[in-house]
Specification:
This protein is of the alpha/beta class. The protein has helices spanning 16-25, 48-57, 75-81, 96-105, 151-165, 182-188, 197-200, 205-213; strands at 3-6, 30-36, 61-67, 85-89, 109-114, 132-136, 170-174, 192-195. The chain has a single domain (3-213), classed as Aldolase class I (TIM Barrel), CATH 3.20.20.70. An 8-stranded parallel beta sheet has the order 1-8-7-6-5-4-3-2.
Length: 215
Amino acid sequence: MTIVAPSLLASDFLRLGEESQMLNESDADWFHLDVMDGRFVPNISFGLPVIAAIRKSTTKVCDVHLMIEEPERYAEDFKKAGADILSVHLEACRHLHRNLQQIKSLGMKAGVALNPHTPVESIFDFLDEIDVVCIMSVNPGFGGQKFIHQTIQKIKNLRQRIDANKVNTLIEIDGGVTLENAKSIVDAGAHVLVAGNTVFSSPDPIATIKVLKAL
């Protein structure tokens, strides 16, 4: 079954408690939480207090995606705020292996996010250290963008290597996931679908999540 991770960045922040409760009642598996610093990406989202509040509202997995510079400075704080999975961008890490070791030492699962221009082959040597690879299928920083079609081949290449290496790394796709393209993404080898506008702009978010989950 596909893991569905609705992105709270697309939710109604004035109704965050209600939105969290809706996800709790749905088939969603993870809460996807995008943290942006205005430096690594041209946007600022939310930070530690919001994540800590969301953590109190759910027992589901909190999947925190750091789109920030120097993520190692804040890893411990995000653990305290309640992150279960912490993903850092390869492009923001001078010493990726050290970042992964830090995250795991704090008791979280370690994720690596890749911008659209970054080849998946760049992390092949460290797949046994990575719990989740978050492939960005849009340019990071803003919701509502269209899916970059070349991502499909990247998924296939990464899934082939994961299966060949017999590791348990999950492939997560973040950006432009819709009801129309989700099946092709899963068929290419993805395990986790991050869906923002597709879920929160739906007239029936719970039904939309159910459709994604069944893929």
